[in-house]
TrEMBL record:
The entry's keywords: Membrane, Transmembrane, Transmembrane helix
Name of the featured protein: GntP family permease
Organism ancestry: Bacteria, Bacillati, Bacillota, Bacilli, Bacillales
Transmembrane segments: 5-20, 26-45, 66-87, 99-128, 178-199, 232-249, 269-297, 439-460
Highest taxon of source: Bacteria
Organism: Shouchella hunanensis
Protein backbone atom coordinates (compact mmCIF):
# COMPACT_ATOMS: atom_id res chain seq x y z
CA UNK A 1 0.00 0.00 0.00
CA UNK A 2 2.92 2.36 0.74
CA UNK A 3 4.24 1.94 -2.82
CA UNK A 4 0.74 2.52 -4.22
CA UNK A 5 0.39 5.80 -2.32
CA UNK A 6 3.89 6.92 -3.32
CA UNK A 7 3.04 6.18 -6.98
CA UNK A 8 0.09 8.57 -6.86
CA UNK A 9 1.90 11.30 -4.93
CA UNK A 10 4.96 11.04 -7.19
CA UNK A 11 2.89 11.36 -10.36
CA UNK A 12 0.94 14.27 -8.89
CA UNK A 13 4.15 15.99 -7.81
CA UNK A 14 5.61 15.60 -11.29
CA UNK A 15 2.45 17.01 -12.86
CA UNK A 16 2.65 20.11 -10.66
CA UNK A 17 6.40 20.57 -11.12
CA UNK A 18 6.41 20.14 -14.89
CA UNK A 19 3.33 22.35 -15.35
CA UNK A 20 5.01 25.03 -13.25
CA UNK A 21 8.11 24.79 -15.44
CA UNK A 22 5.96 25.47 -18.49
CA UNK A 23 5.58 22.01 -20.01
CA UNK A 24 2.20 21.49 -21.75
CA UNK A 25 -0.32 19.72 -19.53
CA UNK A 26 -1.83 18.02 -22.57
CA UNK A 27 1.40 16.04 -22.99
CA UNK A 28 2.65 15.61 -19.44
CA UNK A 29 -0.70 14.61 -17.87
CA UNK A 30 -0.99 11.27 -19.73
CA UNK A 31 2.71 10.56 -19.15
CA UNK A 32 2.58 11.02 -15.37
CA UNK A 33 -0.74 9.14 -15.33
CA UNK A 34 0.85 6.12 -16.98
CA UNK A 35 3.80 6.36 -14.60
CA UNK A 36 1.39 6.01 -11.67
CA UNK A 37 -0.25 3.02 -13.37
CA UNK A 38 3.08 1.26 -13.96
CA UNK A 39 4.30 1.84 -10.39
CA UNK A 40 0.96 0.54 -9.05
CA UNK A 41 1.16 -2.59 -11.19
CA UNK A 42 -1.90 -1.67 -13.27
CA UNK A 43 -2.75 -2.37 -16.90
CA UNK A 44 -1.06 0.33 -18.95
CA UNK A 45 -2.93 0.47 -22.28
CA UNK A 46 -6.49 -0.09 -20.94
CA UNK A 47 -5.89 2.61 -18.33
CA UNK A 48 -4.92 5.04 -21.08
CA UNK A 49 -7.47 4.27 -23.80
CA UNK A 50 -10.50 3.23 -21.74
CA UNK A 51 -10.21 5.32 -18.59
CA UNK A 52 -8.02 8.35 -19.31
CA UNK A 53 -9.23 9.09 -22.83
CA UNK A 54 -12.87 8.17 -22.21
CA UNK A 55 -13.24 10.53 -19.25
CA UNK A 56 -11.28 13.31 -20.94
CA UNK A 57 -13.53 12.99 -24.00
CA UNK A 58 -16.67 13.03 -21.86
CA UNK A 59 -15.53 16.25 -20.21
CA UNK A 60 -14.86 17.86 -23.58
CA UNK A 61 -18.25 16.74 -24.87
CA UNK A 62 -19.99 18.33 -21.90
CA UNK A 63 -18.19 21.64 -21.58
CA UNK A 64 -16.56 22.49 -24.90
CA UNK A 65 -19.49 24.64 -26.12
CA UNK A 66 -19.15 26.82 -22.99
CA UNK A 67 -15.38 27.16 -23.37
CA UNK A 68 -15.69 27.98 -27.09
CA UNK A 69 -18.60 30.42 -26.89
CA UNK A 70 -17.10 32.12 -23.84
CA UNK A 71 -13.81 32.62 -25.67
CA UNK A 72 -15.54 33.92 -28.81
CA UNK A 73 -17.73 36.29 -26.79
CA UNK A 74 -14.73 37.70 -24.96
CA UNK A 75 -12.74 38.10 -28.17
CA UNK A 76 -15.57 39.91 -29.99
CA UNK A 77 -16.05 42.23 -27.01
CA UNK A 78 -12.33 42.94 -27.17
CA UNK A 79 -12.17 43.46 -30.94
CA UNK A 80 -15.10 45.86 -31.08
CA UNK A 81 -13.69 47.91 -28.23
CA UNK A 82 -16.77 47.22 -26.11
CA UNK A 83 -14.80 45.68 -23.24
CA UNK A 84 -12.38 48.63 -23.23
CA UNK A 85 -15.27 51.10 -23.35
CA UNK A 86 -16.92 49.53 -20.29
CA UNK A 87 -13.63 49.46 -18.38
CA UNK A 88 -12.85 53.07 -19.32
CA UNK A 89 -16.26 54.40 -18.32
CA UNK A 90 -16.31 52.65 -14.93
CA UNK A 91 -12.72 53.57 -14.06
CA UNK A 92 -13.21 57.23 -15.00
CA UNK A 93 -16.58 57.45 -13.23
CA UNK A 94 -15.08 56.40 -9.91
CA UNK A 95 -12.14 58.77 -10.23
CA UNK A 96 -8.67 58.91 -8.68
CA UNK A 97 -9.82 58.80 -5.06
CA UNK A 98 -11.45 55.42 -5.60
CA UNK A 99 -9.05 54.11 -8.23
CA UNK A 100 -8.68 50.61 -6.74
CA UNK A 101 -12.44 50.19 -6.31
CA UNK A 102 -12.91 51.39 -9.89
CA UNK A 103 -10.60 48.70 -11.26
CA UNK A 104 -12.26 46.02 -9.12
CA UNK A 105 -15.74 47.03 -10.30
CA UNK A 106 -14.70 47.23 -13.94
CA UNK A 107 -13.31 43.69 -13.77
CA UNK A 108 -16.36 42.46 -11.88
CA UNK A 109 -18.80 43.91 -14.42
CA UNK A 110 -17.01 42.30 -17.36
CA UNK A 111 -16.53 38.93 -15.65
CA UNK A 112 -20.13 38.67 -14.47
CA UNK A 113 -21.25 39.62 -17.96
CA UNK A 114 -19.52 36.57 -19.42
CA UNK A 115 -16.19 37.97 -20.64
CA UNK A 116 -13.34 35.53 -20.01
CA UNK A 117 -10.87 36.32 -17.25
CA UNK A 118 -7.92 36.77 -19.61
CA UNK A 119 -9.78 39.25 -21.83
CA UNK A 120 -10.81 41.18 -18.73
CA UNK A 121 -7.18 41.56 -17.68
CA UNK A 122 -6.17 42.82 -21.15
CA UNK A 123 -9.13 45.22 -21.36
CA UNK A 124 -8.81 46.76 -17.90
CA UNK A 125 -5.03 47.02 -17.59
CA UNK A 126 -4.49 50.16 -19.76
CA UNK A 127 -7.07 52.14 -17.80
CA UNK A 128 -5.90 50.77 -14.47
CA UNK A 129 -2.33 51.84 -15.26
CA UNK A 130 -3.46 55.33 -16.26
CA UNK A 131 -5.58 56.01 -13.18
CA UNK A 132 -3.07 54.41 -10.77
CA UNK A 133 -0.38 56.67 -12.21
CA UNK A 134 -2.59 59.75 -11.81
CA UNK A 135 -3.46 58.79 -8.24
CA UNK A 136 0.19 57.91 -7.37
CA UNK A 137 -0.77 54.37 -6.41
CA UNK A 138 1.98 51.74 -6.84
CA UNK A 139 1.69 49.80 -10.07
CA UNK A 140 2.47 46.61 -8.12
CA UNK A 141 -1.10 46.75 -6.73
CA UNK A 142 -2.73 46.51 -10.17
CA UNK A 143 -2.55 42.67 -10.46
CA UNK A 144 -4.18 42.19 -7.04
CA UNK A 145 -6.91 44.71 -7.90
CA UNK A 146 -7.68 42.91 -11.17
CA UNK A 147 -7.54 39.54 -9.39
CA UNK A 148 -10.04 40.67 -6.75
CA UNK A 149 -12.51 41.81 -9.40
CA UNK A 150 -12.08 38.98 -11.89
CA UNK A 151 -10.69 35.90 -10.10
CA UNK A 152 -12.79 35.78 -6.92
CA UNK A 153 -16.46 36.59 -6.25
CA UNK A 154 -17.61 37.10 -9.85
CA UNK A 155 -15.88 33.90 -10.92
CA UNK A 156 -17.57 31.48 -8.54
CA UNK A 157 -19.64 33.12 -5.78
CA UNK A 158 -22.19 35.46 -7.35
CA UNK A 159 -25.34 33.54 -8.31
CA UNK A 160 -25.78 33.41 -12.08
CA UNK A 161 -22.19 34.09 -13.08
CA UNK A 162 -21.58 32.43 -16.47
CA UNK A 163 -17.95 31.56 -15.69
CA UNK A 164 -17.13 27.86 -16.10
CA UNK A 165 -16.37 27.41 -12.38
CA UNK A 166 -20.05 28.07 -11.68
CA UNK A 167 -21.29 25.86 -14.51
CA UNK A 168 -19.28 22.67 -13.88
CA UNK A 169 -21.19 21.64 -10.70
CA UNK A 170 -24.53 21.78 -12.52
CA UNK A 171 -23.73 18.59 -14.43
CA UNK A 172 -23.03 16.68 -11.23
CA UNK A 173 -25.77 17.99 -8.95
CA UNK A 174 -28.61 18.81 -11.36
CA UNK A 175 -28.58 22.47 -10.28
CA UNK A 176 -28.35 25.71 -12.23
CA UNK A 177 -26.08 28.75 -12.17
CA UNK A 178 -28.22 30.47 -9.51
CA UNK A 179 -27.81 27.76 -6.87
CA UNK A 180 -27.82 28.80 -3.17
CA UNK A 181 -28.04 32.56 -3.85
CA UNK A 182 -27.97 33.64 -0.18
CA UNK A 183 -24.70 31.80 0.51
CA UNK A 184 -23.19 33.09 -2.73
CA UNK A 185 -24.12 36.71 -2.04
CA UNK A 186 -22.84 36.48 1.53
CA UNK A 187 -19.50 35.20 0.29
CA UNK A 188 -19.43 37.93 -2.38
CA UNK A 189 -19.93 40.74 0.14
CA UNK A 190 -17.33 39.34 2.54
CA UNK A 191 -14.69 38.84 -0.16
CA UNK A 192 -15.28 42.29 -1.66
CA UNK A 193 -15.24 44.04 1.72
CA UNK A 194 -12.19 42.31 3.16
CA UNK A 195 -10.33 42.41 -0.15
CA UNK A 196 -10.89 46.15 -0.52
CA UNK A 197 -9.85 46.70 3.10
CA UNK A 198 -6.51 45.01 2.42
CA UNK A 199 -5.83 46.81 -0.87
CA UNK A 200 -6.71 50.20 0.60
CA UNK A 201 -4.48 49.42 3.57
CA UNK A 202 -1.60 48.73 1.18
CA UNK A 203 -2.34 51.93 -0.75
CA UNK A 204 -2.27 54.07 2.39
CA UNK A 205 0.92 52.39 3.56
CA UNK A 206 2.59 53.11 0.22
CA UNK A 207 1.33 56.72 0.29
CA UNK A 208 2.80 57.26 3.75
CA UNK A 209 6.16 55.99 2.50
CA UNK A 210 6.02 58.21 -0.59
CA UNK A 211 6.29 55.25 -2.95
CA UNK A 212 4.14 56.54 -5.83
CA UNK A 213 3.45 54.69 -9.07
CA UNK A 214 7.10 53.80 -9.57
CA UNK A 215 9.33 54.03 -12.62
CA UNK A 216 11.25 51.86 -15.09
CA UNK A 217 8.30 49.48 -15.42
CA UNK A 218 7.87 46.98 -18.26
CA UNK A 219 4.85 46.65 -20.56
CA UNK A 220 3.52 50.12 -19.93
CA UNK A 221 0.35 50.36 -22.06
CA UNK A 222 0.00 52.74 -24.95
CA UNK A 223 -2.68 55.42 -24.42
CA UNK A 224 -6.02 54.43 -25.94
CA UNK A 225 -7.88 56.97 -28.04
CA UNK A 226 -11.17 57.20 -26.18
CA UNK A 227 -12.88 58.68 -29.24
CA UNK A 228 -12.49 55.38 -31.11
CA UNK A 229 -14.39 53.41 -28.46
CA UNK A 230 -18.12 52.67 -28.78
CA UNK A 231 -20.45 54.23 -26.23
CA UNK A 232 -20.70 52.66 -22.79
CA UNK A 233 -24.45 52.10 -23.01
CA UNK A 234 -24.14 50.33 -26.34
CA UNK A 235 -21.16 48.29 -25.13
CA UNK A 236 -22.92 46.99 -22.04
CA UNK A 237 -25.90 45.62 -24.00
CA UNK A 238 -24.27 42.24 -24.85
CA UNK A 239 -23.34 41.69 -21.19
CA UNK A 240 -26.88 42.44 -20.08
CA UNK A 241 -28.30 40.12 -22.73
CA UNK A 242 -26.12 37.23 -21.52
CA UNK A 243 -27.19 37.80 -17.90
CA UNK A 244 -30.89 38.24 -18.73
CA UNK A 245 -31.27 35.35 -21.16
CA UNK A 246 -29.24 33.03 -18.98
CA UNK A 247 -31.75 33.69 -16.20
CA UNK A 248 -34.78 33.42 -18.49
CA UNK A 249 -33.72 30.05 -19.89
CA UNK A 250 -32.70 28.76 -16.47
CA UNK A 251 -35.37 29.82 -13.98
CA UNK A 252 -38.55 31.06 -15.70
CA UNK A 253 -41.45 29.31 -17.44
CA UNK A 254 -39.40 29.71 -20.65
CA UNK A 255 -36.63 27.53 -19.22
CA UNK A 256 -35.05 25.01 -21.58
CA UNK A 257 -36.08 22.45 -18.97
CA UNK A 258 -39.58 22.61 -20.47
CA UNK A 259 -38.65 22.55 -24.16
CA UNK A 260 -38.50 18.80 -24.72
CA UNK A 261 -40.44 15.73 -23.66
CA UNK A 262 -38.54 14.00 -20.78
CA UNK A 263 -39.25 10.49 -22.07
CA UNK A 264 -37.93 11.44 -25.52
CA UNK A 265 -34.74 12.84 -23.98
CA UNK A 266 -34.17 9.68 -21.98
CA UNK A 267 -35.02 7.17 -24.70
CA UNK A 268 -33.31 8.94 -27.60
CA UNK A 269 -30.42 10.83 -25.99
CA UNK A 270 -29.90 9.03 -22.69
CA UNK A 271 -30.62 12.15 -20.62
CA UNK A 272 -32.25 10.73 -17.50
CA UNK A 273 -32.30 14.03 -15.61
CA UNK A 274 -32.72 17.15 -17.72
CA UNK A 275 -31.52 19.18 -14.75
CA UNK A 276 -27.94 18.12 -15.49
CA UNK A 277 -27.97 19.93 -18.84
CA UNK A 278 -30.24 22.93 -18.22
CA UNK A 279 -27.40 25.29 -17.26
CA UNK A 280 -25.30 24.27 -20.26
CA UNK A 281 -28.17 24.70 -22.69
CA UNK A 282 -29.32 28.04 -21.28
CA UNK A 283 -25.80 29.46 -21.24
CA UNK A 284 -25.13 28.25 -24.80
CA UNK A 285 -28.16 30.22 -26.01
CA UNK A 286 -27.36 33.28 -23.87
CA UNK A 287 -23.74 33.45 -25.05
CA UNK A 288 -24.80 33.02 -28.67
CA UNK A 289 -27.19 35.97 -28.32
CA UNK A 290 -24.43 37.97 -26.62
CA UNK A 291 -21.97 37.22 -29.44
CA UNK A 292 -24.42 38.37 -32.11
CA UNK A 293 -25.16 41.55 -30.19
CA UNK A 294 -21.45 42.24 -29.66
CA UNK A 295 -20.76 41.83 -33.37
CA UNK A 296 -23.46 44.35 -34.23
CA UNK A 297 -21.81 47.01 -32.05
CA UNK A 298 -19.08 47.66 -34.60
CA UNK A 299 -19.25 45.11 -37.41
CA UNK A 300 -17.47 47.47 -39.79
CA UNK A 301 -14.43 47.62 -37.50
CA UNK A 302 -14.07 43.86 -37.02
CA UNK A 303 -15.10 42.72 -40.52
CA UNK A 304 -11.57 42.41 -41.87
CA UNK A 305 -10.09 40.81 -38.75
CA UNK A 306 -13.06 38.64 -37.75
CA UNK A 307 -11.66 35.41 -39.19
CA UNK A 308 -8.34 35.89 -37.41
CA UNK A 309 -10.09 36.79 -34.16
CA UNK A 310 -12.33 33.73 -34.27
CA UNK A 311 -9.30 31.55 -34.97
CA UNK A 312 -7.50 33.00 -31.96
CA UNK A 313 -10.56 32.47 -29.74
CA UNK A 314 -11.05 28.90 -30.93
CA UNK A 315 -7.36 28.10 -30.39
CA UNK A 316 -7.51 29.47 -26.86
CA UNK A 317 -10.69 27.53 -26.09
CA UNK A 318 -9.19 24.29 -27.37
CA UNK A 319 -6.05 24.72 -25.29
CA UNK A 320 -8.02 25.58 -22.16
CA UNK A 321 -10.45 22.67 -22.35
CA UNK A 322 -7.85 20.10 -23.38
CA UNK A 323 -5.66 21.15 -20.45
CA UNK A 324 -8.55 20.74 -18.03
CA UNK A 325 -9.76 17.51 -19.67
CA UNK A 326 -6.23 16.10 -19.37
CA UNK A 327 -6.33 16.76 -15.63
CA UNK A 328 -9.78 15.14 -15.43
CA UNK A 329 -8.42 12.06 -17.21
CA UNK A 330 -5.52 11.96 -14.76
CA UNK A 331 -7.90 12.13 -11.80
CA UNK A 332 -10.09 9.34 -13.09
CA UNK A 333 -7.17 6.96 -13.67
CA UNK A 334 -5.78 7.75 -10.22
CA UNK A 335 -9.16 7.00 -8.66
CA UNK A 336 -8.93 3.44 -9.99
CA UNK A 337 -5.48 2.78 -8.47
CA UNK A 338 -5.09 0.80 -5.22
CA UNK A 339 -3.49 3.65 -3.27
CA UNK A 340 -6.35 6.05 -3.91
CA UNK A 341 -8.61 4.54 -1.25
CA UNK A 342 -6.14 5.52 1.49
CA UNK A 343 -5.69 9.04 0.10
CA UNK A 344 -9.41 9.57 -0.37
CA UNK A 345 -10.03 8.69 3.27
CA UNK A 346 -7.90 11.67 4.23
CA UNK A 347 -8.80 14.19 1.53
CA UNK A 348 -12.39 13.44 0.61
CA UNK A 349 -13.66 12.19 3.96
CA UNK A 350 -11.93 14.73 6.19
CA UNK A 351 -15.37 15.52 7.62
CA UNK A 352 -18.61 13.60 8.02
CA UNK A 353 -20.44 16.61 6.64
CA UNK A 354 -20.40 16.50 2.82
CA UNK A 355 -20.28 20.31 2.49
CA UNK A 356 -17.14 20.67 4.60
CA UNK A 357 -15.54 17.57 3.11
CA UNK A 358 -16.26 18.76 -0.42
CA UNK A 359 -14.88 22.23 0.34
CA UNK A 360 -11.62 20.72 1.59
CA UNK A 361 -11.32 18.32 -1.35
CA UNK A 362 -11.99 20.90 -4.06
CA UNK A 363 -9.72 23.51 -2.48
CA UNK A 364 -6.82 21.09 -2.03
CA UNK A 365 -7.07 19.79 -5.59
CA UNK A 366 -7.45 23.29 -7.06
CA UNK A 367 -4.32 24.34 -5.18
CA UNK A 368 -2.39 21.26 -6.28
CA UNK A 369 -3.31 21.60 -9.95
CA UNK A 370 -3.14 25.39 -9.98
CA UNK A 371 -6.51 25.41 -11.72
CA UNK A 372 -9.94 26.20 -10.30
CA UNK A 373 -11.80 24.37 -13.08
CA UNK A 374 -9.25 21.53 -13.08
CA UNK A 375 -9.37 20.92 -9.33
CA UNK A 376 -13.15 21.25 -9.29
CA UNK A 377 -13.59 18.82 -12.17
CA UNK A 378 -11.26 16.21 -10.67
CA UNK A 379 -12.96 16.36 -7.26
CA UNK A 380 -16.49 16.11 -8.64
CA UNK A 381 -15.55 13.39 -11.13
CA UNK A 382 -14.14 11.33 -8.28
CA UNK A 383 -16.57 12.06 -5.46
CA UNK A 384 -19.51 14.07 -6.81
CA UNK A 385 -21.94 11.16 -6.72
CA UNK A 386 -20.75 10.23 -3.21
CA UNK A 387 -21.37 13.76 -1.90
CA UNK A 388 -24.77 13.89 -3.56
CA UNK A 389 -25.77 10.56 -2.04
CA UNK A 390 -24.66 11.54 1.47
CA UNK A 391 -26.30 14.95 1.16
CA UNK A 392 -29.56 13.30 0.12
CA UNK A 393 -29.58 11.04 3.18
CA UNK A 394 -28.89 14.06 5.43
CA UNK A 395 -31.51 16.26 3.77
CA UNK A 396 -28.92 18.72 2.43
CA UNK A 397 -29.84 20.63 -0.72
CA UNK A 398 -27.75 19.91 -3.83
CA UNK A 399 -27.68 23.68 -4.31
CA UNK A 400 -25.43 24.02 -1.26
CA UNK A 401 -23.10 21.35 -2.66
CA UNK A 402 -22.96 23.29 -5.92
CA UNK A 403 -22.24 26.66 -4.36
CA UNK A 404 -19.55 25.48 -1.95
CA UNK A 405 -17.84 23.37 -4.61
CA UNK A 406 -17.75 26.38 -6.92
CA UNK A 407 -16.55 28.83 -4.24
CA UNK A 408 -13.90 26.42 -2.95
CA UNK A 409 -12.42 26.05 -6.43
CA UNK A 410 -11.53 29.74 -6.41
CA UNK A 411 -9.42 29.54 -3.26
CA UNK A 412 -5.94 28.07 -3.30
CA UNK A 413 -6.02 27.77 -7.08
CA UNK A 414 -4.21 31.13 -7.28
CA UNK A 415 -0.94 29.77 -5.95
CA UNK A 416 2.21 30.91 -7.85
CA UNK A 417 1.93 28.19 -10.52
CA UNK A 418 -1.60 29.20 -11.54
CA UNK A 419 -1.84 30.01 -15.26
CA UNK A 420 -4.10 33.02 -14.77
CA UNK A 421 -1.73 34.53 -12.22
CA UNK A 422 1.28 34.01 -14.48
CA UNK A 423 -0.60 35.54 -17.43
CA UNK A 424 -1.82 38.49 -15.36
CA UNK A 425 1.70 39.30 -14.21
CA UNK A 426 2.97 39.00 -17.79
CA UNK A 427 0.28 41.40 -19.05
CA UNK A 428 1.16 44.00 -16.43
CA UNK A 429 4.92 43.53 -16.84
CA UNK A 430 5.44 42.67 -13.17
CA UNK A 431 7.06 39.73 -11.40
CA UNK A 432 5.98 37.39 -8.63
CA UNK A 433 8.47 39.15 -6.35
CA UNK A 434 6.88 42.55 -7.02
CA UNK A 435 3.18 41.74 -6.94
CA UNK A 436 2.36 38.23 -5.85
CA UNK A 437 2.27 38.94 -2.10
CA UNK A 438 -1.01 40.85 -2.32
CA UNK A 439 -2.57 38.24 -4.61
CA UNK A 440 -1.58 35.58 -2.09
CA UNK A 441 -3.15 37.52 0.79
CA UNK A 442 -6.41 37.79 -1.17
CA UNK A 443 -6.16 34.04 -1.83
CA UNK A 444 -5.87 33.36 1.91
CA UNK A 445 -8.82 35.65 2.65
CA UNK A 446 -10.97 33.96 0.00
CA UNK A 447 -10.09 30.47 1.23
CA UNK A 448 -10.73 31.39 4.88
CA UNK A 449 -14.10 32.99 4.10
CA UNK A 450 -15.32 29.93 2.19
CA UNK A 451 -14.22 27.57 4.96
CA UNK A 452 -15.82 29.69 7.67
CA UNK A 453 -19.08 29.76 5.71
CA UNK A 454 -18.89 25.99 5.17
CA UNK A 455 -18.37 25.40 8.91
CA UNK A 456 -21.19 27.82 9.79
CA UNK A 457 -23.65 26.21 7.38
CA UNK A 458 -22.62 22.73 8.56
CA UNK A 459 -23.59 23.62 12.12
CA UNK A 460 -27.19 24.38 11.13
CA UNK A 461 -27.98 21.40 8.88
Amino acid sequence: MFIDIVAILLSLGLLIFLAYRGYPVIIIAPLVTLLAVVLSGGALLPSYTETYMTNAANYIKTFFPIFLLGAVFGKIMDMTGAAASIAHCIVRSFGQKRAILAVVFACAALTYGGVSLFVVAFAVYPFAAAIFKEAAIPKRLIPASIALGAFTFTMDSMPGTPQIQNIIPTSYFGTDAYAAPLVGLTCTLLILSIGMWWLERQRKKALAQGEGYGSHHKNEPEPIDEKTLPSFWLSIVPLLLVIIFNFIFSRTPLSVRNWYDPSMLENTYGIGDVGTVVSNWSLIIALTIGILAAMLINMKKIRLTLAQGLTTAATGALLAIFNTASEVGFGNVVSKLPGFSAISEWVFRASDNPILSETIAVNVLAGITGSASGGLSIALELMGSYYLQVADTMGISPELLHRFASMASGGMDTLPHNGAVITLLAITGLTHRQSYKDIFVLTIFKTAIVFLLAITVSLFI
